[in-house]
Design goal:
Helix content is 38%, strand content 28%. The chain is an alpha+beta fold. Strands 2-1-5-4-3 form a five-stranded antiparallel beta sheet. Strands 7-6-10-9-8 form a five-stranded antiparallel beta sheet, sandwiched between helices. Strands 12-11-15-14-13 form a five-stranded antiparallel beta sheet, sandwiched between helices. A hairpin with a 5-residue loop joins strand 11 (270-277) and strand 12 (283-290). The two termini are 59 Å apart.
Length: 619
């Protein structure tokens, strides 16, 4: 019994799938290490109910599946979503059985598979017909050459039902098969018949077959012998074929369908590998199977002879490769995604799983086995989706920006136009002066709008600022003195929890940032009220808060105030000349300082804007 328990522990430790034992009440009693996929420590999951982490929309179906298990029904392929620690969900496919009072279950994470399938669906349209045509037909021939059975794809491709094909042989003239040059394709030379005679596989044979309705279908045929140890010749043949009619129609280049089709097939295939590890930690090639050459551009022989490995990997991914290799040499399994540079100089994305094998004494790693998958198409699809999403966001922002800008410019222009109209028609000197003053004020406002909009555009184009160490308390003191000199009616006070609060910043941009926040506080504060500037250190940030005693901001406005040209109800402000981009500028300046800005406001009591600066490494 101890041996079996030890074996069970090994299964639970080594399995890539999520294995678990659940009691009759639905509580987890044992979990494999793979459950760490969800981000929770394994001990915290023990004793939890299996429904606790299920997506709310999947609970009813999951409960139904559990009830079926309690009635001794087997569950295979059931899927539901489990919540991860970060709040995301992973799709799991289940296989479960009930024994005594326990449920034994194995789950497989199929989230990435679903995402990959979605990425493939959105691939370029010129490849959709190619992928669709790769559904293979399968026909099994008995030892005498007669067809025993076939799959639905074979029926579709050949235009015959399974009953119609049963008993036929490749020699039957009703196939009316032809070569690519149009000459007859004798039945005795069909791939299946050749394999029956020789016991050897036949690959990539192009054949034209006339369907019963006369339509000509082109297929790519492979045949494989079914051998038994006790019989020297093949007892049956499995013939597989793919409809390549559409491929031949798409491009003249596909006339060389043998090499092209093999390339397409290998590009979507994986490859596996094995290396031995010498005591000094060097890898020695042992074997590879699968599409190693289509993915890397190197044959197995070239891999075996290769001495320098660094040039195969993308330079920026070398730290990951080195960390990965170090972990493997310590006996840790790794699944990573990284880039390689193939023999043609192309960059390919690889998802690689490596499993180290210890020696008998578990003193050192002696073998390394692994499997790799080319995920370049998936990465390109993800990048394309991100670019499309970013472009859509830019268009939406530009549309909103243009709409808001046109409104901000149209209003003062309307006032100027009306004032000019009246100015030219009024004889009263005082009224003409009044209209001229209105024109001057609107011109000043337009100039502010244009200047502020120019600043928004300028900051958006900046990717990095030259930052220098700044003593925040001293900087704020100087700012207050200068600001009050220009605005003597403003009451500005400062507080600091420490004298030495250092940040990395740009003085001119921080000056602009504080000006925007204090101007905004003035705009929404009653006369003679104080504005507080408070500085402190909070965890990994240095904070600077600007607090006023003004009218506050309605909750529905809080999520919009950082949008360009957005202004809250002007009826509650002392100054209607606000442009509406000051907070947008403040937010962008904080982004350029690798920090962020938050707002806290209560209507009728005031508003506090808090700036968060990362603490420089030297502090």
């Amino acid at each position: 019994m101890v041996i079996y328990e030890h074996l069970l522990e090994n299964f639970f430790t080594l399995s890539l799938d999520l294995m678990c034992i659940v009691d009759r009440d639905g509580y987890f009693r044992k979990l494999s290490d793979s459950w760490s996929l969800l981000g929770y420590p394994i001990p915290t999951l023990i004793g939890k109910h299996c429904l606790d982490y299920v997506h709310p929309d999947d609970i009813l179906a999951t409960q139904t599946a559990i009830n079926r298990l309690r009635h001794n029904e087997a569950i295979d392929g059931f899927r539901n979503r489990y919540r991860c620690k970060d709040g995301s969900y992973r799709m799991l496919a289940w296989r479960c059985r009930k024994y005594d009072d326990f449920i034994f279950a194995i789950a497989r994470d199929v989230t990435d598979m679903n995402q990959t399938q979605q990425a493939l669906i959105e691939s370029e349209s010129r490849y959709r017909s190619v992928i669709a045509s790769m559904s293979e037909g399968v026909v099994i021939h008995a030892q005498d050459g007669t067809i025993q059975t076939c799959n639905p794809a074979a029926e579709r491709i050949l235009g015959l039902t399974q009953d119609q094909m049963k008993g036929l042989t490749s020699i039957d003239p009703r196939w009316r098969a032809i070569h690519e040059d149009g000459s007859p394709f004798p039945g005795e030379t069909h791939p299946a018949m050749i394999t029956l005679k020789t016991g050897q596989r036949v690959s990539n044979v192009v054949m034209g077959v006339h369907k019963p309705d006369g339509e000509l279908t082109w297929i790519l045929v492979n045949s494989e012998p079914v051998l038994h140890d006790s019989v020297p010749t093949s007892s049956a043949v499995v013939a597989t074929f793919t409809d390549i009619t559409e491929l031949k129609r798409i491009s003249e280049a596909l006339k060389q369908s043998e090499s092209r089709f093999r390339t397409i097939s290998e590009l979507i295939s994986d490859f596996a590998y094995g290396f031995s590890v010498s005591p000094d930690g060097e890898l020695h090639y042992e074997w590879t199977i699968g599409a190693i050459k289509p993915i890397t551009g190197y044959t197995a022989e070239m891999i075996a002879e290769r001495k320098e490995w660094e040039s195969l990997f993308y330079p920026e991914d070398m730290p990951l490769i080195e960390e990965r290799f170090a972990d493997i040499m310590r006996g840790k399994e790794r699944i990573d995604e990284f880039r390689i540079i193939n023999a043609l100089g192309e960059i390919r994305w690889i998802r690689d799983y490596s499993k180290p094998i210890w020696d008998a004494e578990k003193q050192c790693v002696t073998f390394l086995y692994g499997a790799a998958q080319d995920i370049t198409a998936q990465k390109q699809a993800e990048q394309q989706k991100q670019e499309i999403r970013a472009e859509r966001d830019r268009i939406n922002i530009l549309t909103d920006f243009i709409t808001a800008t046109s409104h901000e410019l149209r209003t003062p222009l309307s006032v100027i136009n009306t004032s000019l109209y009246l100015l030219m028609r009024l004889d009263d000197t005082d009224k003409r002066k009044e209209k001229a003053q209105q024109i001057t004020e609107q011109v000043i406002y337009l100039n502010r709008v244009i200047t502020q909009l120019h600043e928004v555009v300028r900051l958006d184009r900046i990717t990095e600022l030259e930052l220098e160490p700044i003593a925040l308390v001293s900087f704020v003191t100087s700012f207050i003195n200068e600001y009050q000199y220009r605005h003597q009616q403003v009451i500005l006070n400062s507080q600091a929890t420490e004298d030495l609060l250092m940040i990395q910043g740009s003085r001119i941009h921080l000056q602009n940032l504080l000006t925007q926040l204090v101007d905004n506080a003035m705009c929404y504060s009653p006369p003679a009220s104080a504005i507080q500037i408070m500085m402190s250190k909070k965890e990994e940030f240095i904070t600077l808060a600007v607090q006023d005693e003004g009218t506050g901001i309605e909750p529905e406005d809080l999520q919009k105030i950082f949008n360009p040209l957005y202004k809250v109800n002007t009826a509650r402000t002392r100054n209607e000349n606000g442009v509406g981009v000051g907070l947008t500028i403040a937010k962008r300046i904080m982004q350029l300082h690798h920090g962020h800005i938050t707002v806290d406001s209560k209507v009728g009591k005031g508003t506090t804007f808090t700036l968060y600066f990362p603490i420089p490494p030297m502090t």
